[in-house]
């Protein structure tokens, strides 16, 4: 792992941040996240009336002496979060966007590993799927090396490829994509994600620099997904129509995400990854 790919300042921030999940963690191993069910950690949860079969060692005898009723003490059960990150590796994710996306995935993964959560990372839509699964601080460097060595993006069907994968259960699942495929192609993926994860969060990578000329001219448009080119003479009306189509596409994608209860956060690449994670994601209640 090189400093240019993931600076040590970013690594230090990930050691302090944690993923937040509104649903109970789905991990089976011990971790640092309260699962909401009774367990054996030293953190007290509440009292409940004694019932046959309860461990008599948990009876609070002080309450029994005062009320003549048996109550047992319950303690929080700490379980790991299962954090899943799916990265769009289709052709439109190339260039500076690919570096930004991998750095973002590095932040999400390093946060999970630093908190002793279980991380599953995968790419979809690229020339070759890539999967990384690990738990624990000792795997942070290995994860960064994995991200740095990923093949450049080159496919054109992220949503379809991701929907065909065997997705294991997760507490929180992140989808990092530019969302440039047809809106309806995301429906099977979102449906599958909601069935396999407690919470699904889409981070939509958008460039705040418009890719449409502000005035009429002869230009060549290249489809970022298929690579096909077309020469067009743009007029003011054509430019306005194209901008309206772009806005409509992302509006429809946002509506589809709401339909499947998928939270969406837009990430402008001009903002740094640290800004996105430590401020925007914190304000959204995704991290603490």
UniProtKB/TrEMBL annotation:
TM spans (from-to): none
Pfam families: DUF58 (PF01882)
Region called Disordered, residue ranges: 24-47
DUF58 domain boundaries: 48-241
PANTHER family linked to this entry: BLL2464 PROTEIN, DUF58 DOMAIN-CONTAINING PROTEIN
Name of protein: DUF58 domain-containing protein
């Amino acid at each position: 792992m090189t400093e240019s790919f993931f600076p040590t300042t970013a690594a230090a921030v990930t050691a302090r941040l944690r993923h937040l999940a509104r649903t109970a963690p789905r991990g089976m191993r011990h971790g640092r996240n309260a699962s909401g069910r009774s367990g054996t950690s030293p953190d007290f949860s509440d009292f409940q009336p004694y019932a046959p079969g309860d461990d008599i060692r948990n009876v609070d005898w002080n309450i029994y002496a005062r009320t003549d009723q048996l109550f047992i003490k319950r303690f929080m059960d700490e379980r790991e979060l299962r954090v899943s990150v799916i990265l769009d590796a289709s052709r439109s994710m190339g260039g500076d966007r690919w570096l930004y996306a991998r750095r973002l995935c590095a932040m999400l993964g390093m946060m999970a590993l630093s908190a002793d959560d279980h991380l599953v990372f995968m790419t979809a839509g690229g020339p070759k799927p890539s999967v990384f699964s690990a738990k624990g601080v000792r795997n942070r460097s290995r994860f960064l090396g994995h991200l740095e060595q990923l093949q450049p993006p080159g496919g054109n069907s992220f949503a379809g490829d991701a929907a065909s994968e065997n997705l294991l259960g997760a507490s929180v699942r992140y989808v990092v994509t530019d969302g440039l495929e047809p809106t309806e192609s995301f429906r099977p993926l979102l449906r599958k994600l909601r069935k396999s994860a407690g919470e699904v969060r889409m981070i939509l990578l958008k460039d705040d620099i418009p890719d449409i000329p502000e005035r009429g001219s002869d230009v060549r448009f290249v489809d970022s997904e298929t690579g096909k080119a077309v020469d067009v003479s743009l007029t003011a009306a054509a430019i306005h129509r194209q901008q309206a189509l772009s806005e409509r596409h992302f509006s429809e994608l946002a509506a589809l995400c709401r339909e499947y209860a998928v939270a969406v956060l837009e990430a402008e690449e001009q903002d740094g990854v640290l800004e996105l994670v430590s401020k925007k994601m914190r304000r959204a209640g995704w991290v603490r």
